[in-house]
């Protein structure tokens, strides 16, 4: 049931603020957002966390690393599941594995789970399907409560994973350093605000994207969202898109910038705003078509998409939304099958 939306993808994009509120309801304990005590205890004596995932869930994992390191002060490594499975790094014995998967059925990740469990490491899965293989086979599991995701391109599961990772990391921090009740509420409002302005993004897309290539650039957490924005655009529009660390543009990819190639910068962090903007200027000098997604407090002059401010660490919940809408409206303009892009399956059950 598309609930009046033309495609599941747009329905699921629109559900994202509700997903955040649902997660808040499910994780609320005494007016605070917390994981269950037994999950917190799993992290006693843990010196390093490994996050494993594929695709969009991997991109959520990269943001999870920032939460664990900045909020919980636990060092983290993030691996693509299919890479970890056969090229294992040197692992500290006091390590715990967090496996992130919307479906809970991704074969690459299951291979990792079997492998690390056999070696005796503790495992925690984060999934959208509590009856899935990864939810059942890990030592413990956290539900993201995003509701069934039907469009092949993942949207609401990604924001759900990020919110649950934030709650997990904050539960492990000594001082519970983030006031997540108010920060996640604020993020949900900011998400709603940009979803309500989706017609504007549709218009922007009609005027900006007439090229077979596109780039997303960003630094730090914005780079991780750039990777996700690029994946979404390429998978549903078939436009070749790369997500690039803004500072790396000059180390190679700049050679590809020519007239009218969109270069979309995500700028949500004040301390790197000027650097990313000067990278964008260089792309503009090569006649690329710059587009800026910023927050109110990082915006300048005439940025194309300005989002309501949210906590610095939670910016991906909001900055990802225009990237999803850009992909959606471009695919719609091209008349391709938005909910079922060619060559892809909703869950990848072979390695
Ligand atoms: C992209 C997408 C895929 C999945 C990946 C992992 O939109 O949906 O990249 O994120 O196949 O799937 P899960 O999260 O089910 O393990």
> Cofactors and ligands present?
fructose -6-phosphate
Query: Low-confidence runs (pLDDT<50, min 5 residues)?
Result: none
Regarding quaternary structure, how should these chains be classified? single chain
The major β-sheet equals:
5 strands, parallel
Strand arrangement in the largest pleated sheet = 4-3-5-6-7
Q: How helix-rich are the residues, as a percent range?
A: 40-55%
Q: End-to-end span in angstroms?
A: 31 Å
Strand elements, count? 12
Describe it:
The longest helix is centred in the last third of the chain and has 20 residues, at 315-334. This protein starts with 7 loop residues before the first helix and ends in a 17-residue tail after the last helix. It has 351 residues and is an alpha/beta fold. The strands form three sheets. A five-stranded parallel beta sheet has the order 4-3-5-6-7, sandwiched between helices. Strands 9-8-10-11-12 form a five-stranded parallel beta sheet, with helices on both faces. It is globular and about 55 Å long. Helix 2 (16-27) runs parallel beside helix 8, helix 10 packs across helix 13 (315-334) and helix 11 (221-237) runs parallel beside helix 13 (315-334). A hairpin with a 2-residue loop joins strand 1 (28-29) and strand 2. The mean pLDDT is 96. The protein is 46% helix and 17% strand. The protein binds fructose -6-phosphate. Fructose -6-phosphate binds at residues 54-57, 101-103, 106, 109, 153-154, 231, 235, 347-348.
């Amino acid at each position: 049931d598309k609930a009046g939306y033309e495609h599941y993808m747009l329905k699921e994009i629109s559900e994202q603020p509700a997903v955040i509120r649902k997660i808040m309801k499910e994780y609320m304990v005494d007016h605070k957002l917390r994981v269950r005590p037994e999950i917190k205890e799993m992290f006693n004596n843990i010196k390093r966390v490994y996050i494993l995932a594929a695709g969009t869930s991997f991109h959520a994992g990269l943001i999870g690393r920032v939460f664990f390191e900045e909020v919980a002060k636990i060092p983290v490594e993030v691996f693509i599941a299919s890479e970890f499975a056969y090229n294992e790094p040197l692992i500290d014995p006091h390590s715990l594995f967090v496996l992130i998967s919307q479906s809970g059925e991704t074969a690459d990740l299951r291979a990792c789970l079997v492998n690390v469990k056999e070696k005796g490491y503790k495992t925690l899965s984060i999934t959208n399907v509590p009856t899935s293989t990864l939810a059942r086979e890990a030592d413990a599991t956290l539900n993201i409560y995003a509701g069934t995701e039907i469009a092949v391109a993942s949207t609401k599961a990604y924001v759900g994973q990020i919110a649950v990772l934030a709650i997990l990391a904050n539960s492990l921090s000594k001082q519970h350093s983030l006031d997540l009740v108010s920060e996640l509420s604020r993020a949900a409002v900011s998400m709603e605000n940009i979803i309500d302005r989706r017609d504007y993004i549709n218009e922007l897309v009609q005027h900006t994207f007439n090229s077979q290539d596109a780039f997303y650039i960003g630094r730090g957490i914005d780079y991780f969202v750039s990777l996700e924005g690029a994946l979404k655009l390429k998978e549903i529009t078939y436009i070749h898109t790369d997500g690039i660390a803004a500072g790396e543009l000059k180390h190679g990819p700049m050679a590809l910038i020519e007239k009218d190639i969109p270069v979309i910068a995500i700028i949500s962090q004040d301390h790197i705003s000027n650097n990313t903007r000067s990278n964008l200027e260089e792309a503009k000098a090569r006649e690329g078509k710059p587009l800026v997604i910023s927050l109110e407090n990082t915006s300048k002059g005439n940025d194309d998409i300005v989002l309501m401010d949210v906590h610095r660490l939670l910016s991906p919940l909001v900055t990802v939304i225009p990237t999803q809408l850009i992909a959606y409206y471009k695919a719609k303009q091209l008349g391709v099958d938005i909910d079922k892009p060619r060559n892809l399956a909703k869950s990848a059950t072979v390695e």
